[in-house]
Amino acid sequence: MSWELFAVFLGSSIRLATPLLLAGIGEMVSERAGVLNMSIEGMMLTSAFAAAVGSWATGDPLLGLLIGIVAVQPVALLQAGLSNTLRANQIVSGIGIKNIYAFLRDVEKINEPGWLHDRMQAEDPNAVIGQCAEDGSSSLCFETMKIFCGAYGAEAGNIALKVIATGGMYLGGGIAPKILKTLKNGTFLQAFLDKGRLSPLLESIPVRVILDDTCALLGAAAYAEARASEISGYSERAKSIQG
């Protein structure tokens, strides 16, 4: 390889990697602030498309850059409104389950029986995959949930290390209570503990699954009561404890 070719290769690598590096730094700051921005790739594509069209239409690259910056603001405001104001779930795990299933079926060529195909079309695909993995009626569903639990356990371990959750990790939501047998087969725990030198810390952290369907409502009620007591200066719970 000549020095000229190497210089071209290096320059192209830096040019192509810079947007990804900047996006990664932005996502790191965002996640540290408590917002997991899963739409960051869509924001980048929206901004890049608007900047390209703006540059072509105006003939001015700088004006096109400005158009790209402005164009992505509505998407960012929507993300902020849903995640921060409305407290929407920032991680839609069900999408991952269906994508893993499709990958194993279409790429790895694991057989999908006719009855399973019919159920996937007629019912909620995530529920079908979870049920068939739990009762062992489909190897495709079992392998799907095995991969999912590995990713689930790895991310749970990451969160436990971020917040030093020595009091325990509690898995809530609609998925974990329905796949207890799959969670217990060892894949989740192995991925949870696979953190190198930090594994001993994770071994001391208990992991529990929340089985109470009303847990979210109880949390909302407790928060509402706390806010009401702050505003009014009166707490019915505190009064009952003191009495």
Describe this protein with a few key phrases:
243 residues, mainly alpha, Hexokinase, domain 1, 2 domains, two-stranded parallel sheet, 13 helices, 2 strands, globular
Describe what you observe in this structure:
It contains 13 helices and 2 strands, in the order H-H-H-H-H-H-H-H-E-H-H-H-E-H-H. The mean pLDDT is 85. Helix 2 packs antiparallel against helix 3 (61-71), helix 7 crosses helix 8 (139-163) and helix 8 (139-163) runs parallel beside helix 10. With 243 residues, the protein is mostly helical. The chain has a two-stranded parallel ribbon. It has 2 domains: 3-85, no CATH class; 93-211, Hexokinase, domain 1 (3-Layer(aba) Sandwich). 71% of the residues lie in helices and 2% in strands.
What topology does this entry show?
Blueprint: H1 3-32, H2 40-58, H3 61-71, H4 73-85, H5 93-106, H6 114-122, H7 125-135, H8 139-163, E1 169-171, H9 180-183, H10 187-193, H11 199-203, E2 207-209, H12 215-232, H13 236-242
Helix pairs in contact: 2-3, 5-8, 6-7, 7-8, 8-10
Q: Using DSSP, what is the number of strands? A: 2
- Residues in helices, as a percent range: over 70%
Strand order of the largest sheet: 1-2
Main sheet makeup: 2 strands, parallel
CATH class of the largest domain: Alpha Beta
Helix/strand-derived category reads mainly alpha
Mean pLDDT: 85
Tally of contiguous helical segments? 13
Which architecture name of the largest domain does CATH use? 3-Layer(aba) Sandwich
